[in-house]
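Have a think about this chain, tokens included, and walk me through the fold.
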Amino acid sequence: MNEHAQSPTTPFDHPVVTMRTPADMVDVLPFLLGFFPSDSVVALGLQGPRRRQGGTVRIDLPPPPDWPEAAAEVARYLVALSEHRDRRPDAVILYLCRDPEPGQDGRAVRDSLAPLADALAEAFRTAGIPVHESLCVSGGRWWSYACGNPVCCPAEGTPVERPGSTPAVAAAAAYAGISVRGSLKELEQELAPVAASSAEEQLRAFERVVPVLVAELSQDGGREAVRARTAELVDAAVQRFGGGAAELPPEEAARLILGLQDRLARDRAAEWLDPPDVEHAQRLWRFLARRCTGPFDDHAAAPLSLLAWTAWVTGDQVTARIALRRALETDEDYAFARLLYEAVNTGAQPQSLCATLRAERRSRQRRGSGRRPGRAPGERRRVRTGRGSGCAAPPGGGVYRQ
């Protein structure tokens, strides 16, 4: 289950949006998430007698056989998120969003998702949380599963207005600087692997770089030398992107991607977290993530996690969550992504980690060296060269993932 969780973070001095009707609830949805939630289930917790916004959980629409289990998981997850931050929800608003298939209209989507709406309502009732409203959004219209009044909720559905059409929502979004950046599908596509023509060229570059890297790792002190070289390449690439570059040669990209599989090299790269360089680093991480194709697709977890890290520290939680979602789809065991996912979704703040990385950078600059001695606990002694490549590092060398 791909989950998007968000704790309430609205400052008390921000304007309050009063959602009196289902239309208001539909209007505010993309502002809650920062994007249009394509093919999603969203559960918005409500707190207290005035029904203020609580935590928010979004998952991909599950396949029908999994609906009861998925519904129970959404209820459990929203309760856990809310209790972690404050207390359990007093009510919930449910959204079921799906684009119609070709030749299908929104009413058919509404009817097909009705059993899932029932399963969600039952899961929240079992948890002792009433459903305040349950909505289907499809094909530019919305329907209510909870209201049968044709005056306010007609059978043909109600058109979804342009985001921010409700004056209160528009005013609050403008005040808080919140914008809707497109659909979830569009945002995910920005991190998708490059097209086939570019991918083929990048794969040939990996094939040339892998044996060179293996040879370097096999030498005495090879591991430390490769880390230092990766740090130099990262620093140079960030500076080049800061100067207006939009890409790197395929072999340099391959070398950076492979080098960042080393945990210490990746942590060193995470030190690019302050303006204006953090913006250049973000563009570099996007570029590298999209060059992880074919047997090297799982290598994208490192640059995607670095993108999520820089997004988190700059307050861009939408990009952070989408990059982490993709990283964990790529490698569900990637520890850095899992830790960031937990931190972002529980409302943690990055300041202490930022201070640690800045201190490490200052210390290294005083030492006048980019090298970091020693081997990390659990370091693996093989080079990550892509699934099925058959290239293994000789004893004593290797790039590992953690």
